[in-house]
Write a structure and sequence with these properties.
about 130 residues, Brorin, mainly beta, three-stranded antiparallel beta sheet, about 0% helix
Length: about 130
């Protein structure tokens, strides 16, 4: 632990008073106190006076249009699983006709957090009228 008062009157210096708090971003925390700095960051005041923080790792989203909500660490998919069909966003699990000749679908494996960001599209020959 950090020593804040050292007695140097003897041959070997001795610690008379130890620091039992941490200072972090202008605030004081007690030893072993845990605190939340942001929705993604948790910290703890260690016995040696140091602050150790951990940042949450977010899983990959299963959509191309995730949104961040206040007080939540990781983005969420409000519109459900989806992907891009060129510039349009289409839902996963359904075939979508993007124009008269093109059908697209998102390749998506439910529950695996794996989705292709670009849709698989098939163009059909269109008859000219």
């Amino acid at each position: 632990p950090r020593c804040i008062h050292v007695d140097t009157s003897q041959c070997c210096p001795q610690c008379k008073e130890r620091k039992n708090y941490c200072e972090f971003r202008g605030k004081t925390y007690q030893t072993l106190e845990e605190f939340v700095v942001s929705p993604c960051e948790r910290c703890r005041c260690e016995a040696n006076g140091e602050v150790l923080c951990t940042v949450s790792a977010c899983p990959q989203t299963e959509c191309v249009d995730p949104v961040y909500e206040p007080d939540q660490c990781c983005p969420i998919c409000k519109n459900g699983p989806n992907c891009f069909a060129e510039t349009a966003v289409i839902p996963a699990g359904r075939e979508v006709k993007t124009d008269e000749c093109t059908i697209c679908h998102c390749t998506y494996e439910e529950g695996t957090w794996r989705i292709e960001r670009q849709a698989m599209c098939t163009r059909h020959e269109c008859r000219q009228m």
